Amino acid sequence: MNEHSPLKRNLPYSLALLLFIVLAFFTVSCDSRKPQVDMEKVTPVASNAPADNSKKVLRIAVAAMISPETTRTYYEELLRLISRRMGREAVFVQRRTYGEVNSLVKNREVDVAFVCSGPYTEGHDDFGMEIIAVPVVHGEKVYHSYIIVHHDSTYKSIADLKGHKFAFVDKGSNTGYLVPAYMLAKRREKAQTYFSEFFFTHSHDNSIRAVADGLADGAAVDSLIWEFFNTINPELTGRTKIIEKSPPYGIPPVVVHPGLDSELKKQLKHDFLSLHEDKEAAALMAKIQIDRFAEGNDGMYKMVREMNRWLKAHGSK
Questions:
Q1: 29-43 residues labelled b (16+ CB within 10 A) or e (exposed)
Q2: Is residue 21 predicted with pLDDT exceeding 50?
Q3: pLDDT digits (tens, 9 = 90+) for 181-235
Q4: pTM of the full predicted structure?
Q5: CA-CA distance, 63 to 204, in Å (whole number)?
Q6: Can you list the domains of the chain with their CATH numbers?
Q7: CA-CA distance, 187 to 109, in Å (whole number)?
Q8: Percent of the chain's residues with pLDDT above 90
Q9: Which of 55, 216, 223, 248 has the fewest CB atoms within 10 Å, i.e. the most exposed one?
Q10: Are 7 and 84 in contact (CB under 8 A)?
Q11: Which residues is 113 bridged to in the sheet?
Q12: Burial 238-272 (b: 16+ CB within 10 A, else e)
């Protein structure tokens, strides 16, 4: 995503925060052909915050929706901007699985996190995980799971992938695991017996690459990430094709612990919801396919929660 960098040092705080959020969902991967990655990192970022504020930090976690190698470089620059504007020492926290990020929020080890829809429902039901904003993409607050295969293959649906190799993202991923698992369960099938082999890539871009490079015959990926990569890296997505598209689900939210300091929560929410009012931020959002950030609510995730419960009840998760 080099066309979006280097970032200007005089970007307003709101734009820096926007870029952080967007990159949390849509950063270009420099991953190699191996789909598995290890992203258990805790990274303090150098800050320009005043010395007397050295103990005041903003701890930010991102679920493993994207691979970490290139992401980390961009995050560090963005976090420097955020810390300077907020007068806080920014700490960026990475974890390998969605469940680990949920635990960080639950144990109040981070202040704000970017999570997938499935883990949000589990976090909400477990300890009251709270939505502060959701992205609006092309006028909608929803996304889909895409079943993708190599462009040259003859597969037409997930039914054609029986006995073949499949890539999932993470067991907590809605679009990268729950949706295809639900598709199979409705056919009275399980991944263990349906596919000849399956593995977890731990990020959607790794799954796209696994199919493009022939490491997997098929994969389930986040529609937002596939569509964004189709814009910025069509050579990669051009080696894949979509053969099935799921019903719409509530888009991945930005969340906090319900007990987060009320003033910090208020500030974060205000900055998210007002980004589109900044002309420079609005222009950037249009370029990267985000209209604005809006209020979200638990009702948006009813279908995700029901699917998750059904899978557990039928022993398919």
A1: bebeeebebebeeee
A2: no
A3: 999 999 999 999 999 999 999 889 899 999 999 999 999 999 988 998 898 889 9
A4: 0.77
A5: 11
A6: 2-140+250-308 (3.40.190.10), 143-249 (3.40.190.10)
A7: 41
A8: 48
A9: 55
A10: no
A11: 61, 255
A12: ebbbbbbebeebbbbbbbbbeebeeeebeebbebb
Q: How far apart are CA 58 and CA 6, in angstroms?
A: 23
Tokens of 287: 């370029």
Are the C-beta atoms of residues 277 and 125 closer than 8 Å to each other?
A: no
Q: 97-117: b or e for each residue (b if 16 or more CB lie within 10 Å)?
A: bbbbbbbbbeeebbbbbbbbb
The Cα 95–Cα 101 span in angstroms is: 6
For the chain, the C-alpha Rg in angstroms (whole number) is 19
Longest dimension (CA), the chain: 63
DSSP code per residue over 151-167:
TT----SGGGGTTSEEE
